[in-house]
Specification:
single chain, 1006 residues, mainly alpha, 46 helices, 6 strands, 47% helix, elongated, disordered N terminus, repeat, Ankyrin repeat domain containing protein, Ankyrin_rpt-contain_sf
Length: 1006
């Protein structure tokens, strides 16, 4: 850059010629000069070479910016006067400059190459760190901070590399001593990265070896491994050494010329850190928000570069100021030694670039490497939008693809067929394939799609990353699920397979259907997506997903492109049946039918569409189905009249279309059972028999009685229902058992027979229906009428202890001498109150043998007293065997035994099932011995023999010496009586070797 401008005061103009002839072209030295060589750690200039030093004459950089002279291009024309230099001096200067340029060019190329190698090494370390983060659950102490430092250092190196590349492409020579210092810094950085690579590789090796590796790592920590801390400190120093160089390139070349690109390792590490507590802050950095496109010329580096963390600004550099760009006219000048001088560069005040935050570099998303038969074009216009903001143009390309289809009448059922022509659709072609085989690029592409980072997606695809990311995660599915139109367009543009599936078997078209994403589906279909492709564990098709979701427009779209309306899933469900529900638009069903859906197809459960429509209460869909040929008599799974009974409107429609009610016997009873009087009216009007039984048992009339529906009951009687046709029971009996006695008069008036079958009174008693019992008795029914089982109303009332019914029946003439379940008096002994009523009307109680013993067994002393008062004998045996006294002893009824002996004067020696004393010795020898004493006191004889046995023998049998002694002393012992085997009592005792008993017997012999 020359300094032949008129920005010196007039008094210095005459000295310019001497300056040109006698010394180097530099502005006057300011006492407060900012030396860029010093900032770059260049060696201080010698006296001989001080004339070529590059300085900025300002007390400080801030002061220089405020006091900088006005740029040449912005000055008035009269100030830009040209003073030609002396020819001799210029010739000498030009000759000297040519030699320097030759040497500088070679050194500059080598420096650029070294920078590329170091940047690649930094990116490789970042890639290994990202892999390590994905392997471990908990990061080691200091690893997160180290990762952020690596990202910052990578970024600085990328900026320096971009600056060196820009200088090389524009043939701008850098100062040789500046190149020397940069090379020195790169060598130092290279050593640091080798050491860091060794540390990270060792950590990775530990994790890859599993438990043993982690054990070795833990053992190493016992000896104080602080390698991460040391590397953090070293890397921070390296970054600070390189930062001023990056700043110089940004300041000299301008932010909009700094086309830095970040590596895959950088992206992976930034993404991995974002999933941890070490997420990077997004503030200003070295880059500016200048251009949106990037292009690497033939001399660019081979290592792949990309973007940091999708859709975010670059790394945090709060301590590094962002310099404003140079004026456009001065950015095109050479970068020679003389151009370092600061006074030749001017800045306007308040430039709009002074506050820009940096952004990453991308290929223009809407004009990416797009192959349409012409040469590839790239946009170079600056994009000043933030990466967080998507312009409206991002979806304009997809709108252009789908607008023609969306303009059609997709909401109507009008049939329209379209053919997919994927080969006529726009196709993209990557600029290069440098990233096609790089690891983890598919995951990075998926992450970019999830983040909605269109520029990153474009850049990755443009560098050969396949849009088909495999089964694990499908990038196209991710774009569709987030309804990202631009990502969908880009992926399809670069060859994403519209029929690929993810690990769950979900295809892109199914994903679009699940999200009701119409624009995405249109694009997929135009690019060749199969609308009938069955995917997923349930093998759903896109059309079935859309139809079940009741998405009319989406379903119509798929049908237009050849979707099969008769598709059947693995479970046998058809689309037509699956889509019908209470909220299904009628247009959707009409559409499927118009496109050829078969209305009589059955699903896996045997259901047809008409059945589903009826059960969903959709009379409009029922009409549509029958109009399109649905068979109203086809069982699916049952005759359509059965479900239609619940829906009167649907019932009327299918009856109007010739539904045969004879194929659904019992339909009237079902309508009655559901209490649907409107359906009953429709069926009666259609001619259905009101007496038709359901399942051969249930009649509509009995069902209406059971459900207490008087309106239906009256309607059926008026319509000819027979009151004598039985269901599980006769209508009159149904009124009694279900306490619907209010229906009895109407039934009788309609011809109901109360006498056939017999037993309605007994049914009223059993059902505890007092009002019905009284009404029936008032109608003149016989109170002694038996049921087919032989029960009478009186005996059933006695059995149920219903005193009120007994009184009613006796008052109405019930006969206590008529046997029902048993004799009334015998059944009444269990309840003295009822017994007293029966005895009051019973002419001869003694006629019923055994009634006294029954009262004893029932443990009713009061009944015993009532029977004795009525003249029944105390010795009245039941069945000719069981006497009241022996039964009382057997049942341990002590109070009754006492009453029978003391007050009723029962004979204590009269046998029942045995002699009373023998029965007492058998039942009361160990307890209730007072009964034995009572019998002995009343004269019971233990020597009396009955059936070859007596009391003495029973005492011997019991082995009770004390009881034997009591009996012997009380009554003596008859040694002559014999048992049924002919043995005397002494012989029985001797046979048992019981000497004590023999002595007792002999001592008390009578």
């Amino acid at each position: 850059m020359n300094y032949q401008s008129s920005d010196w005061p007039p008094r210095d103009r005459f000295g310019r010629g001497d300056m040109i002839r006698d010394g180097p072209l530099i502005p006057p030295k300011d006492p407060f000069a900012f030396d860029l060589k010093e900032a770059l750690d260049l060696p201080p200039p010698s006296r001989a070479s001080s004339a070529s030093a590059s300085t900025i004459s300002a007390p400080s950089l801030r002061r220089y910016l405020e006091a900088a002279p006005q740029p040449l291009m912005n000055r008035p024309p009269q100030q830009a006067q040209h003073y030609p230099p002396a020819p001799g001096s210029l010739a000498r200067f030009a000759s000297h400059r040519g030699v320097n340029m030759s040497n500088t060019s070679k050194a500059q190329a080598q420096c650029h190459q070294l920078c590329t190698v170091v940047a690649a090494a930094c990116d490789q370390v970042a890639e290994k760190m990202s892999e390590y983060i994905t392997l471990v659950k908990h990061l080691p102490q200091g690893f997160g901070n180290l990762g952020n430092d690596v990202l910052d250092t990578c970024q600085v190196l990328f900026f320096i590399e971009a600056g060196l590349g820009e200088a090389s492409r524009n043939n701008q020579a850098l100062p040789l001593d500046m190149i020397t210092v940069l090379e020195k810094k790169f060598r130092a950085a290279q050593i640091d990265f080798r050491a860091l690579d060794h540390v990270i590789s060792k950590q990775l090796e530990y994790e890859r070896k599993g438990a043993m590796g982690r054990m070795r790592r833990g053992f190493g920590k016992m000896f104080g491994d602080n390698s991460l801390e040391r590397m953090t400190i070293t890397l921070a120093k390296t970054r600070e050494d390189l930062k001023i160089s990056a700043l110089m390139f940004q300041w000299k070349l301008g932010a909009d010329r700094m086309e830095s690109e970040l590596g895959i390792g950088y992206i992976g590490l930034a993404t991995a850190l974002d999933g941890t507590q070490f997420r990077r802050n997004r503030t200003a950095s070295l880059a500016s928000e200048g251009k949106a496109s990037s292009y690497r010329g033939p001399g660019s580096v081979r290592q792949h570069r990309s973007i940091e963390d999708h859709r975010v600004h670059m790394t945090d550099q709060p301590h590094l100021p962002v310099l404003p760009p140079l004026p456009q006219t001065e950015r095109t000048h050479g970068f020679a030694t003389e151009s370092v001088s600061g006074e030749s560069i001017g800045y306007g005040q308040g430039t709009e670039y002074s506050h820009h935050s940096p952004t990453t570099r991308y290929t223009q998303s809407s004009n990416g490497s797009f192959y349409d038969g012409h040469h590839t074009k790239r946009s170079t216009a600056p994009d000043r939008m933030s990466t967080f903001e998507e312009t409206s143009e991002t979806s304009s390309a997809l709108d252009g693809i789908v607008s023609d289809i969306k303009s059609l009448e997709l909401e109507s059922a009008k049939v329209l067929h379209l053919e997919s022509e994927p080969y006529s659709m726009p196709r993209g072609k990557p600029r290069s394939m440098v990233d096609a085989d790089r690891p983890n690029v598919s995951q990075i592409l998926v992450s970019a799609v999830r983040a909605g980072d269109h520029k990153l997606v474009t850049q990755l695809l443009d560098r050969g990353v396949s849009p088909n990311t495999g089964l694990e995660v499908n990038a196209l599915n991710e774009a569709l699920l987030s309804q990202d139109a631009e990502c969908v367009r880009l992926l399809l543009l670069y060859g994403a397979d519209p029929n690929s599936t993810d690990k769950d078997g979900v295809s892109p078209l199914v994903a679009a259907a699940e999200k009701s994403y119409l624009d995405g589906a249109i694009a997929l279909l135009k690019y060749g997506a199969d609308p009938n492709m069955s995917v997923g564990p349930e093998m759903d098709s896109p059309l079935s997903v859309a139809a079940v979701a009741n998405n009319v427009r989406f379903t119509h779209l798929l049908l237009m492109y050849g979707g099969n309306p008769n598709w059947t899933g693995t479970t046998g469900n058809t689309i037509l049946i699956s889509c019908i529900n209470k909220k299904t638009p009628k247009t959707l069903v009409d559409m499927l039918l118009a496109y050829g859906a078969r209305p009589n197809e059955k699903d896996g459960e045997g259901k047809i569409a008409l059945f589903k429509a009826i059960t969903s209460s959709r009379v409009d869909i029922v009409k549509s189905l029958v109009e399109h040929g649905a068979n109203v008599n086809l069982p699916g799974p049952k005759h359509m009249l059965w479900p239609a009974t619940f829906e009167p409107a649907c019932l009327q429609v299918i009856l109007a279309h010739k539904a045969d009610y004879k194929k659904a016997p019992g339909i009237m009873e079902l309508a009655t059972s559901t209490n649907n009087i409107e359906s009953i009216r429709i069926l009666l009007k259609a001619g259905v028999d009101p007496n038709a039984k359901k399942d051969g048992v249930y009649t509509p009339l009995c069902t209406s009685i059971r459900d207490n529906r008087k309106d239906i009951f009256d309607l059926l009687l008026r319509s000819g229902a027979d009151p004598n046709v039985p269901a599980s029971e006769y209508p009159c009996f149904k009124c009694v058992t279900h306490h619907r006695e209010q229906f009895l008069p109407a039934l009788v008036a309609a011809g109901g027979n109360l006498h056939s079958p017999k037993g309605i009174l007994e049914t009223a008693v059993t059902s505890k229906n007092g009002p019905a019992l009284k009404w029936l008795l008032e109608q003149g029914l016989d109170p002694n009428e038996k049921t087919p089982k032989g029960f009478t109303p009186l005996t059933s009332a006695i059995r149920d202890n219903h005193i009120g019914f007994v009184d009613t029946l006796l008052a109405r003439g019930a006969n206590p001498n008529i046997r029902g379940q048993d004799w009334p008096v015998c059944m009444a002994v269990r309840n003295p109150e009822i017994l007293s009523r029966i005895l009051a009307v019973l002419p001869e109680p003694r006629a019923f043998k055994g009634v006294m013993e029954m009262a004893v067994v029932a443990n009713q002393l009061e009944s015993v007293k009532l029977l004795l008062a009525a003249g029944v004998s105390v010795e009245d045996k039941n069945g000719g065997v069981f006497s009241p006294l022996t039964s009382a002893i057997r049942e341990h009824r002590k109070d009754i035994v006492t009453f029978l002996i003391n007050e009723a004067h029962a004979d204590v020696n009269a046998p029942g099932e045995h002699l009373p004393i023998v029965k007492a010795l058998r039942r009361c020898a160990t307890e209730h011995t007072d009964i034995i004493d009572m019998l002995l006191d009343k004269g019971a004889d233990p020597n009396k023999v009955y059936r070859g046995w007596n009391g003495i023998m029973q005492a011997l049998e019991n082995g009770d010496a004390e009881m034997l002694l009591k009996l012997a002393k009380k009554s003596g012992v008859n040694l002559d009586v014999k048992d049924e085997l002919g043995r005397t009592v002494t012989e029985i005792a001797i046979s048992r070797r019981w000497e004590e008993a023999v002595e007792i017997l002999l001592a008390n012999a009578a």
